[in-house]
Amino acid sequence: MTTMTIARVPAANAPFEITEVEIPEPGPGQVRVRVRACGVCHSDSLTVAGAMGNDFPRAPGHEVAGEIDALGEGVTAWRAGQRVGVGWFGGCDFTCDSCRRGDFIACENGLVAGIAYDGGYADYMIAPAEALVGIPDDLSDVDAAPLLCAGVTTFNALRTSVARPGDLVAVLGVGGLGHLGIQYAVKMGFETVAIARGTEKEPLARELGAHHYIDSTSADVAEELTGLGGASVVLATVTVPDAMTPALGGLRPRGQLVVVGASADPMQVPPFALIPGSTAIQGHASGTSKDSEDALRFSVLTGVRPTIETMPLKDAQAAYDKMMAGDARFRMVLTTGD
Ligand SMILES: [Zn+2]
Ligand SMILES: [Zn+2]
Known about the structure:
With 338 residues, this protein is an alpha/beta fold. 23% of the residues lie in helices and 26% in strands.
């Protein structure tokens, strides 16, 4: 067998084409991954639109779990058959100023799987060795996949924030990122508040461990958080800036609104919302492959798992459409090899 199935976008904003192509060969420093599962992330829409300047045709997919199928020249730290993942961090140049400072996620020439090269919407993909994430034995491929973007993003945002064990932490949005953010916040020892629109998501938020729930349509979020003592951190996982800013008033002094919900829309904030409490709005970029490995190990250790719905690769369009419509509960995962 020398061909494989790939679900790729033939042109900007065009529907997916499911087609057969030659199985690619890994070059120097690269490996070929036999993909078993790939999460469908809202950021895949960047690939579909070509918003980050990707070529077409292009297969999205930066929540990839599978195993190493072939090693390129010079790859010595990994072996064939090893279970690995590939996340948003898809490689770096090791030579720019950020890399020379050890800040690989900020690499000026950083590669994103599914944008710089074909991602995990395929039977096989090629990835640079530095993008690989070891997957623990106790984690299935379909569970590991969403943790490689949605998981590491929320895990890493929380562990690098100003919040310390016992602090009040709010997670804004109970969706693909939020349902993981709530679990991580609880397991990291934060008094955890889930915030969402309406009451529909309250039972789930509580099931995930949230100690408090705020319905943002009927309550004043800032007032509620202040009533609970003020939040050290509000982790904003929604993609609507206007839904983020009301939480600013609920931060305790020196607290942070940590933004991981990716949106190109402007955020309007009166400077007075930040000055009295010396509060901050902090963006957070995912994490490196080693951060992802930490997220996977922490998830095994504490029982954090994504809530997923699987679909076969040939149904990539349906899975993507369902995610974009906000109907995924809570992460769509494509599977291959059936
Ligand atoms: Zn993602
Ligand atoms: Zn670099």
